[in-house]
Amino acid sequence: VPNSIITLTTDFGEESPYVAAMKGVILGINPAARILDLSHQIPPQDLRHAAFFLSNAIPWFPSEVIHVIVVDPGVGTERALLYVNVDGHQLLVPDNGCWTELACAVPDKRVVLRLANPTFWRHPVSATFHGRDILAPVAAHLSLGIEPGQLGPPVQDWVRLAISPPVCEGDVWSGEIVFIDHFGNLITNIPRDAFQKMASPKLLVKIGDEKVRPVWVRSYANVPAGTLIALISSSDTFEVAVSMGDAAARLGVRAGSGIRVVIEP
Amino acid sequence: VPNSIITLTTDFGEESPYVAAMKGVILGINPAARILDLSHQIPPQDLRHAAFFLSNAIPWFPSEVIHVIVVDPGVGTERALLYVNVDGHQLLVPDNGCWTELACAVPDKRVVLRLANPTFWRHPVSATFHGRDILAPVAAHLSLGIEPGQLGPPVQDWVRLAISPPVCEGDVWSGEIVFIDHFGNLITNIPRDAFQKMASPKLLVKIGDEKVRPVWVRSYANVPAGTLIALISSSDTFEVAVSMGDAAARLGVRAGSGIRVVIEP
Amino acid sequence: VPNSIITLTTDFGEESPYVAAMKGVILGINPAARILDLSHQIPPQDLRHAAFFLSNAIPWFPSEVIHVIVVDPGVGTERALLYVNVDGHQLLVPDNGCWTELACAVPDKRVVLRLANPTFWRHPVSATFHGRDILAPVAAHLSLGIEPGQLGPPVQDWVRLAISPPVCEGDVWSGEIVFIDHFGNLITNIPRDAFQKMASPKLLVKIGDEKVRPVWVRSYANVPAGTLIALISSSDTFEVAVSMGDAAARLGVRAGSGIRVVIEP
To answer: Roughly how many angstroms between the first and final C-alpha of chain C, as a whole number?
Structure first.
């Protein structure tokens, strides 16, 4: 439908004209498209950040929305560009693995095509900006109702990010800090189930070389400001934070760090 | 009406997926809603910044727009979430005082309800993200035309920010730097009336321990670049700035600092 | 038409309420307007940055879109505000030269008016925020269908940024780094034609006092991460970059720096 929603997620920042160029290209093809920014502050070329972002953003949207993702360190190489339909969510995205976590939950409800039909691209196609020259125009044409099948052939294989699932041995969980948010909260991949039976578990947490004993809470403000806390994140995983503070700065931690949690009920 | 405007103001930043999740939840309930970002760069948990922002943004909008505000240090505690109608502007906002300056001017045109009806929430409600699970879905349902009265009961009391009004003694005004903008301009709460009768007042300004004599101007470029100036802000209050420069950096000042102005006509 | 698109490009940042106030003013006049952010991260008062941004953003839009630009160091002085129609693109912009590069390509398809009719302004007009009080309301009225001729009289002269075109002497091009993007890529004004005949030119590049020999590539990922590279930018000019890195940081360069390129075929 002409007034379809097209969302944009990029690592372009906002001081550069790249996002604006993509918006112009979309509206040049479909002036009725409703463009919605998700983020242009994905850290440059950070596929893991993009993967976490998409996993925690896309599922909330109604199906049929078209999501354009341009975190594309491989632009201009032989890496493919993909049309992906996961459970009704439509993505246009470089084949670099940033979207594959989304598809784990619903392997049966997945269509993946390789963009190969230059009819729907802008020409000449630059070597460094396929967001503007391929993904944006394809999104606009999709919003006007072309059949996805016209974009290119199905593919059976694509790049996957190497992700280590969290491991549980007895009372010890080993996982990863998969994301640090704007507040400096440390979001891990250790599932909430690990803590579900405990009203108030005692925790010994090892991050890097540091061992800490965060206070288990329901939410940030249940303790005095500055307290190191542990809780269930809004993504339903284990989170370490500082009440009214910045845990990443306090503990000197970066995304991708390992974390070990010893749970003493 | 389905194509209602819903604005978003948060302290979430743009690298995190939280704003995107809220947009997805809104569109999942009302796909025709027109979502408009006001800011996601309110400094984390900074209620005074949020209060200034809202006082200088909301009144410009037409009434009937729905404004969602998520600066919410108390999420997951017993703090209430509110529906507020001030002079026709509809706000969905935590009960932390960030909106109350808006209501001072029009005490008679005010409705305040406590969100208490879980029918309009997303379930399960997380302990740390009521923006996504309560405020966003309530906004979407409001945009579809539900009666505000369905959201919860009226309340007569709510949190207010402690704000010290500026004080005038003879030719001396004492007030506060209530906001430092993106340019480093110092916006105070001293009213323009204090200067209204003077074409070109002489000023002695004390900020912290520093005494300065800014040049009184109409606007920034009326003097050489680098000049310390004083003028009436676009919020109709006293402002200290540096022409083509950053007064906050020059004077080492932060929002919340006291300011004293001696006016020599 | 009521649901016209109005884009906003400013140097206001997003922590201040200035952009939100402009959005409110526009919607107060035309509630159906479709507001689209291009950027609010133009560096403060940086007209050259704004000029590059506009030249690389506006041409991608369909004509009839209304673009409001507020990078306005001269606000409150006698500088004019302009309505510009360049090849169908409509701009509302201070007369400071930030838009004039756009007009070079199409001198015949240009209308420039001086905003002089206060009927379409918000009153009282502040001395420091003409974006809110003049440009935003004029954009909203335009979107409702008023004739541009009602805004003010045509003008034949306007401010132009002093721009030195690149110079070629034999195999040596001298130009300027006109823009540094979010990734730290150095975009110059040396045209792609200079390199067109060479499949793989050898380059000696002098930036400031530093001489470097970047590897000529088609795109960023065609060489190992960290390699200093040269390529054709998505603006069709010569670009210096670091594969998966930040060339501006590596070379200590700022926008406006001169660059010399010796091409050895």
So the answer is: 54
